[in-house]
Amino acid sequence: MPSLGAIQMVGPRLGWAVGAHAIFTTADGAHWTKQYASTEEFVGVDFISATTGWAVATRSLLGTTDAGRSWHQLGEPPAPIRSVHFISATSGWGIAGGTDPQQIHGWLVPHDSATLVITNDGGATWRSLGGPSNPQTVCFSEAGQGWVGAAEGVYLLRMTDQGSNWSLALPRPDQQQGVPQVTLIECAAPHALWVLFLGGQSAMSHSPYVAYATVDGTSWKAVMKEAMSEQQILPGVPAGPDTYPPSFSVVDPTDAVFIGDGPATNVAQCVIASNGGATIRRTGRIDNAPETFAAAFTSVTAGWVLTRNAGGDYVIAATADGGYHWSQQLAIPPTSAG
Asked: What tens digit of pLDDT does each residue of 103-148 get?
């Protein structure tokens, strides 16, 4: 597990980052302190306000209602929680259990056999919820309906009095049988969703990915792709930042930022997608940063990225001008990763 694996900002100054054995926080958007230490590895973080949030660890779920001054352990379903997404202090959804979970750009994603779960009491208790088989990621903007990412695509999940029903809303364009494939999703109220399909046959430092967006929840736009491996499937779609799947952060329904990953170029290139993905703008890059772990942008100009520097430290890099210039805010040596 990386020393820094997930990050969320609540506005331009307040935020949290989690990783191996610690939760870090900033109150000014520039200086980070260790807020909570643990023997556990933290893999996810989700805040709905300046005070109320959740941190997912490999064996437990923690919650706070006082901006992290105190963290308390919450309930778990029979299998460990892998990721959560809350829309209020009480209502949340999660992915639980599953085999061989991998930390991927801010999510802990199980390979298969995971379960969709729901809580109505802030995470104190959880129950299983009907949904597509082998869910990987989940995201809701409203109580009535949300989205589930699975290897084969994105499902629209509607809550009903009897439970839930679901339908495939966006099939993955490059499905490959027998090859691990992952769907990362991030929503923006009221109806928008941004999607990153990744995984598949990698070759010559090219690892397939495709990004999609919908602003209204019904019409989809192919936003960007890995230029070589996806060229035949999506010939007219612009190239993404580099040859490996990027980290991404949704700013609002029409804007998102993608950054990284370039093992061959040894940089994290920043790309801003606007107008629901219709406009792509390449800005700057983080040098000596071939791998990113997660990103959090509060606007198309202000953002924070988890990466590694030339010395191997896990770092939080920040930009205030849309990715043209970057500064390092926190560095954690890899030895502290445990």
From this structure: 999 999 999 999 999 999 999 999 999 999 999 999 999 999 999 9
Instruction: Name the phi and psi angles at 193, rounded to 5.
Output: -145, 135
Residues in the chain: 338
Whole-angstrom distance, CA of residue 251 vs CA of residue 222: 18
Pairing of strands 255-259, 267-274: antiparallel
Which segments of 161-266 are extended strands (E)? 163-171, 181-188, 192-199, 209-214, 221-225, 247-252, 255-259
Residue 253 contacts residue 216 (beta carbons within 8 Å): no
Query: Domains in the chain, start-ordered, CATH in brackets?
Result: 1-74 (2.40.10.500)
Residue type for 9, please?
Answer: M
Q: Give the span between the Cα atoms of 161 and 167, in whole angstroms.
A: 17
Main-chain phi, psi angles of 328, to 5 degrees? -90, 125
Residue 326: CB atoms within 10 A of its CB come to 24
- Is pLDDT of 61 > 70? yes
In whole angstroms, how far apart are CA 134 and each of 81, 87, 96, 113, 170?
Answer: 14, 23, 10, 5, 16
Q: Tens digit of pLDDT for each residue in 29-40? A: 999 999 999 999
335 backbone dihedrals φ, ψ, rounded to 5°: -65, -25
Q: What single-letter amino acid sits at 280?
A: I
**Residue 242 exposure: Cα atoms within 13 Å on the Cβ side:** 28
Spatial strand order of the sheet with 135-140 comes to: 135-140, 145-150, 153-160, 163-171
Distance, CA of 6 to CA of 46 (rounded, Å): 9
- Model confidence, pTM: 0.97
Residue 308 neighbours by CB under 8 Å, 6+ apart? 289, 290, 291, 314, 315
- The tokens describing 227, both together, are 């230029």
Cβ count near 203 (within 10 Å):
10
In whole angstroms, give the CA distance from residue 295 to residue 42: 16
